[in-house]
């Protein structure tokens, strides 16, 4: 297995003013930030993002809490191994190892996008360590019958899909931007911080493998969904971007049916609520953290 670590010189220390930490996992070195003290908030990103997505959440919430944000292997500043499964279940095993090695407890788990199945699977495995859950637009159920997912899967598994992901760096350059309801909310400077972690074809393999898992890991998602009762008794906050064209309001309804006691805030935003409506989302999480468990 070849592992690639890239220079971090492109990271703007004003936008992302954190100490870089690394934890050696069986599969590679995982980059993370660990700021503040108090109850632990663990931030889990999806694709093609990294801990940078949560930078303003960490700046604000670390005044009162211990904020930990990881970069999945293959993303952000973590190692980019080129010959690993790269599936959500593989990423969940890495996160499980991370939680146990740092012996994290009383965790508020924050998840988004592919970080939903990854983070919630690790949360199910470590349910005694989880206190609360904050869910941004995500899913956790079988995808193989979803017609939109099937269309995407056909493209991703074609030669064209491979070219788009590995040669054009399509995911951070194009798809990420499409996830914004207002493209003006994505500045060039910020956009570069999502493009730069993937400078060549090898570094983009992780993006392609996770994209293939949208349908490829369908059975595994469903298995996690059926085990979600292990987390359903926790306190849940759902922060949902109502203008998300990737993971739509239909998915929100499914979560609400499964978690009738969850608090929900619908936010006028695209897929990346953390970028488009950060102040509103940070305020909601702060209020949620201050509430006593029932």
Describe what you observe in this structure.
It holds the Pfam family Abhydrolase_1. Residues 40-276 form the AB hydrolase-1 domain. This is Alpha/beta hydrolase. It comes from Aequorivita soesokkakensis. Keywords: Hydrolase. This protein is α/β, with parallel strands linked by helices. The chain has a single domain (15-290), classed as 3-Layer(aba) Sandwich (Rossmann fold). Helices cover 40% and strands 17% of the residues. The protein has 13 helices and ten strands. It has helices at residues 55-61, 88-101, 115-125, 147-156, 159-166, 170-178, 188-195, 205-216, 218-226, 229-232, 249-258, 273-276, 278-290, and strands spanning 3-4, 21-25, 28-35, 40-44, 66-70, 80-81, 107-111, 130-135, 235-241, 263-267. The strands form two sheets. An eight-stranded mixed beta sheet has the order 2-3-5-4-7-8-9-10, with helices on both faces. The protein has a two-stranded antiparallel sheet with strand order 1-6. Strand 4 (40-44), helix 1 (55-61) and strand 5 (66-70) form a beta-alpha-beta unit. Helix 2 crosses helix 3 and helix 4 packs antiparallel against helix 8 (205-216). The longest helix has 14 residues, at 88-101. The mean pLDDT is 96.
Give a summary of the structure in a few sentences.
The chain has 294 residues and is an alpha/beta fold.
How would you summarize the topology of this molecule?
Blueprint: E1 3-4, E2 21-25, E3 28-35, E4 40-44, H1 55-61, E5 66-70, E6 80-81, H2 88-101, E7 107-111, H3 115-125, E8 130-135, H4 147-156, H5 159-166, H6 170-178, H7 188-195, H8 205-216, H9 218-226, H10 229-232, E9 235-241, H11 249-258, E10 263-267, H12 273-276, H13 278-290
Parallel strand pairs: 4-5, 4-7, 7-8, 8-9, 9-10
Antiparallel strand pairs: 1-6, 2-3, 3-5
Helix pairs in contact: 2-3, 4-8
């Amino acid at each position: 297995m070849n592992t690639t670590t890239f220079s971090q010189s492109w990271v703007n220390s004003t936008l992302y003013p954190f100490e870089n930490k690394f934890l050696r996992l069986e599969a590679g070195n995982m980059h993370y930030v660990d700021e503040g003290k108090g109850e632990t908030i663990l931030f889990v990103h999806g694709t093609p993002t990294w801990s940078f997505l949560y930078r303003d959440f960490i700046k604000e919430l670390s005044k009162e809490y211990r904020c930990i944000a990881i970069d999945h292997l293959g993303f952000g500043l973590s190692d980019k191994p080129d010959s690993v499964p790269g599936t959500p279940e593989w990423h969940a095993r890495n996160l499980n190892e991370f939680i146990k090695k740092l012996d994290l407890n009383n965790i508020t788990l924050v998840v988004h996008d592919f970080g939903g199945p990854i983070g919630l699977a690790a949360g199910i495995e470590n349910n005694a360590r989880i206190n609360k859950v904050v869910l941004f637009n995500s899913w956790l159920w079988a995808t193989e019958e979803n017609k939109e997912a099937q269309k995407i899967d056909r493209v991703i598994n074609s030669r064209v899909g491979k070219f788009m992901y590995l040669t054009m760096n399509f995911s951070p350059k194009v798809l990420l931007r499409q996830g914004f309801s207002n493209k003006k909310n994505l500045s060039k400077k910020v956009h570069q911080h999502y493009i730069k972690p993937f400078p060549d074809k090898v570094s983009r393999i992780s993006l392609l493998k996770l994209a293939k898992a949208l349908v490829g890991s369908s059975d595994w998602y469903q298995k996690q969904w059926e085990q979600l009762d292990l987390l359903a008794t926790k306190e849940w906050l759902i922060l949902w971007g109502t203008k998300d064209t990737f993971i739509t309001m239909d998915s929100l309804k499914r979560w609400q049916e499964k978690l009738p006691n969850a608090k929900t805030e619908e936010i006028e935003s695209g897929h990346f609520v953390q970028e488009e409506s950060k102040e509103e989302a940070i305020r909601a999480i702060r209020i949620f953290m201050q509430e006593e468990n029932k």
